[in-house]
Design a protein that fits this description.
Order of helices and strands: HEHHEEEEEH
Structural class: alpha+beta
Helix content: 40-55%
Largest sheet: 3 strands, antiparallel
Number of strands: 6
Strand content: 15-25%
Distance between the termini: 41 Å
Radius of gyration: 20 Å
Length: about 140
């Protein structure tokens, strides 16, 4: 397997892991292993990489219903990044900033008038995003 293909395969597993943790907050390595059909040791290696890279962190340990050691719960690390999503419709623009763990950081909205041109709407979208970026929230 070429190095580029190997890196693509690793990136695909990382992406799947992050997606699973985003969809199932507080999931353990064992849960991920079952959901993804990979050995727990393999999941553990990928999880450690994502923790080292700052995308994941360990949450509080959860007691298992059966005997055994408490499960390590995984969470998205909010410090890994921030995102802004923009929704606009006929009357308004709404922008929302969230951190990597999907915690809301702030919102901004701006009205759209029926007389606004495409250029004006585009400028308002840019201004709304710029306002969020300039705030202390992001």
């Amino acid at each position: 397997m070429g190095e580029a293909l190997k890196q693509q395969a690793i990136a695909a597993v990382h992406s799947s892991l992050v997606r699973q943790i985003r969809m199932h907050d507080g999931v353990s390595c064992i849960d991920l292993s079952r959901r993804m059909g990979l050995a727990a040791s393999t999941i553990g290696l990928y999880v450690e990489q994502l923790i080292d890279e700052g995308f994941l962190r360990e949450g509080p340990k959860v007691e298992q219903p059966a005997a055994g050691r408490p499960a390590k719960v995984l969470q998205l690390d909010p410090r890994a990044g921030q995102f802004i999503g923009v929704d606009f419709e006929a009357r308004q623009i709404l922008a929302t900033a969230v951190d990597f763990s999907q915690k809301p950081l702030g919102k901004a909205k701006q009205a759209i008038r029926s007389s606004d041109s495409v250029r004006q709407v585009t400028r308002k979208i840019q201004e709304t995003i710029a306002g969020l970026l300039a705030s202390e929230l992001c």
